[in-house]
Amino acid sequence: MTKIAPSILAADFSKLGAEIADVEQGGADYIHVDVMDGHFVPNITIGPLIVEAVRPHTSLPLDVHLMIENPDQYIPQFRDAGADIISVHVEACPHLHRTVHLIKETGAKAGVVLNPHTPVSMIEHVINDVDLVLLMTVNPGFGGQSFIDAVLPKISRVRQMAEKLGLEIDIEVDGGVKTATAKKCADAGANVLVAGSSVFGQADRKKALEDLRTSL
Ligand code: DX5
Ligand code: ZN
Predict the structure, then answer these.
(1) Domain 3-215 architecture
(2) ipTM over 0.95
(3) What is the DSSP letter of 181?
């Protein structure tokens, strides 16, 4: 079954606990947390303090997407704060294999993320070691951007790679996922959909989640 991971980037930060409870009650599967450092991406968001603050407010897995340089320095802090899945960008990790294993040593699930232009071949030699592959369908940094259709064949490529190797990994897409684009992602082989504005940006989050599922 396709999982939906609302991104708190589009939530009201003045009442984050209630916002997360709202989407959990509405049927969300993961809570997606966008961490940006103002270097790897042109925006600054949140750090481990906020992960720690929201942890008691949900029993859903916290899916932490690190859009930061030198993630190795911060991975243990995010795990200690309560992250269940920690994903790092291929483009930010010169020693990706080491970083993936650092994540796994903390006890978290490890994900690798590809920007829209980064070829799938970049993860060919590490896919056996990961729990999740995240394909960006926008250039990371901001919510509310338009879905990039050119990424769709990459989703199928990763699904084929995983099937060939007998791997049961999550294939997640992030950026511009809404009722008009969700089905294309699921049909291509994605089983986790990150949704920011199309869930937290809507007044009725339960309905927004249902609408996304119905669109599949
Ligand atoms: C973009 C972030 C996304 C963002 C998605 O850099 O990684 O998770 O919150 O927002 P929407 O769904 O509005 O495109
Ligand atoms: Zn994200």
Answers:
(1) Alpha-Beta Barrel (3.20)
(2) yes
(3) T
